[in-house]
Design brief:
By secondary structure, the protein is an alpha/beta fold. It has helices at 3-12, 31-34, 56-68, 79-91, 106-115, 138-146, 168-177, 192-195, 214-217, 237-250, 257-292, 327-336, 360-379, 392-399, 409-412, 452-455; strands at 16-18, 72-76, 97-101, 118-122, 125-127, 132-135, 151-157, 181-185, 209-213, 225-229, 298-301, 310-315, 340-342, 344-345, 350-353, 417-421, 464-468.
Length: 469
């Protein structure tokens, strides 16, 4: 099946979107962009140039900067990945030390390898019920900085994939006191400014560089993102220039005008009706929680400091069974029976992502589906609660220990590798990445010693791994 045919087939399924991207199958993007081929042009007169913008693209970038309150904002057409790699490579010198939360996206690890950096990892704190990171302990951050010889840059992920907005402002202050530049992967936070309230963008909380994915939580097309430079940025002029140079080198010289147009359209929506849409969504999500609050076998959560747009669903203890009824099975049933696609699922939880493009009928379908599933489970005998929970905090603490890291990833890339069964890999040095997706966070990195705790995070389907010889 060719790509277009596959896309048409998926579109014809009529799925209700509780997953990325934020435009929910074209809503709020505007009728004109649906005729996207008319906008699929190149750098002809009047169309400006992304890499040397002087007119219409520049005006849009200025409008983005004004809306978000940055010193400078650059449109990205290669997703947050391009922004993160460019920022890390531009803000560091080859071989520098860099501080990273261990649950960073794979693009951060790729930048570390490309630049030959020496990473120091901080293990995040975890909610053990759901196996998700919920923040970083400030004392652990201080201790890790003290162990570094010449710390240069700190990379933090905020909010987390699941929308947890932990107290990042204090962490940024600690890093600044140590003379570090702070880069925040805010891929899941481009909408925070729209909603106001206590959960704020790290751009407002002191970060020097912030990278956001527009497409994840706002009505813009996939691949669209932005890199913001703070008005109080500690970057030197040379670092700033080098980051911008990397953006030109790593992004295509023929950026899609359709993608860029969707960013401009998204911004118009935020400027003109954003508050109205945000208030409507908040009210509808609150109504959702009331509607499903009486379910016996399924429970919906919005955790402390969690973005209201992210919904976690789990199975009530007493009805859970690792093999016969878990959240992966729930997600399959929502998709195959009720035509609802969640963002991702583990055995312990389903994550649903909403946006201002979701409509009442989406929530009505979800509520109806959950009520039907709940009634069906109640009719069956309750399953024994055999829920298996990994001690994620302990595991991530172990794989973040400096003693695990034997070689830099770029050094390991050039060493001899052999493939062995996963069961025989403990104690060996990894020769490849292991990156479960979602969420795209490496659990094994080339050059690391594979320990027993590492294997607890490896997907069961992975039977072999490359190790160094």
């Amino acid at each position: 099946m060719r790509l277009l045919e596959a896309l048409e087939s998926i579109n014809n399924e009529g799925l209700t979107s509780f997953h990325m991207p934020g435009h929910k199958s074209g809503r709020l993007i505007g009728e004109s962009l649906k005729l996207f081929l008319a906008y699929d042009i190149t750098e002809i007169p009047g169309a400006d140039n992304l890499h040397h913008s002087e007119s219409c693209i520049l005006d849009t970038k200025v409008a983005i900067s004004e809306y978000y309150g940055s010193q400078l904002s650059e449109i990205l057409v290669g997703g947050s990945t391009i922004g993160l790699i460019s920022a890390i490579m531009g803000a560091t010198q080859r071989g520098d030390e860099i501080l990273i939360n261990r649950n960073a996206h794979q693009s951060v690890y790729n930048a570390v390898e490309l630049q030959g950096l020496k990473p120091y990892f901080i293990a995040p704190e975890f909610d053990e019920r759901f196996g998700i990171p919920i923040g970083i302990d400030i004392q652990k951050l201080k201790d890790r900085i003290k162990s570094m010889i010449a710390p240069s840059v700190c990379v933090l992920t905020y909010p987390t994939y699941e929308g947890i907005c932990y107290p990042i402002e204090d962490l940024i202050k600690v890093c600044h006191e140590a003379g570090m530049v702070v880069l925040v992967d805010e891929a899941h936070g481009a909408h925070l400014k729209l909603f106001g309230g206590p959960l704020r963008s790290s751009l407002e909380l002191g970060a020097d560089i912030v990278v956001q994915s527009f497409h994840k939580t706002l009505p813009a097309m996939t691949q669209t993102a932005c890199i913001h430079f703070s008005k109080t940025s500690r970057l030197s002029d040379n670092q700033m220039d080098t980051i911008l140079w990397h953006l030109k080198v790593l992004q295509t010289s023929s950026p899609s005008y359709v993608l860029m147009a969707s960013v401009d359209r998204m911004l118009r929506v935020l400027e003109d009706q954003g508050h109205e849409y945000a208030e409507r969504l908040k009210a509808r999500i609150e109504a959702y929680y009331k509607e499903v609050s009486e379910l016996k076998t399924l429970k919906s959560y919005n955790l402390a400091n969690q973005d209201i747009g992210k919904i976690i669903i789990s199975i009530t203890p007493g009805y859970y069974d690792d093999e016969h009824w878990n959240c992966e099975i729930l997600a399959d049933q929502l998709r195959n029976v009720h035509r609802i696609q969640v963002e991702y699922a583990t055995k312990n939880m389903c994550l649903l992502m909403t946006s201002i493009a979701n409509e009442d009928e989406d929530f009505e379908r979800l509520e109806s589906a959950l009520e039907q599933i709940d009634a069906e489970i109640i009719l069956k005998a309750a399953h024994p609660d055999h829920q298996t929970r990994l001690p994620f905090g302990q595991v991530y603490e172990s794989i973040s220990d400096p003693g695990v890291h034997i070689h830099k990833a770029n050094e390991a890339r050039n060493m001899t590798r052999v493939k062995v069964p996963m069961s025989e890999s403990i104690g060996q040095i990894a020769g490849e990445y292991v990156i479960p997706y979602p969420p795209g966070i490496p659990v094994i990195v080339p050059g690391e010693r594979i320990i027993k705790e590492s294997l607890r995070l490896v997907p069961e389907t992975m039977k072999e791994i490359y190790i160094l010889r």
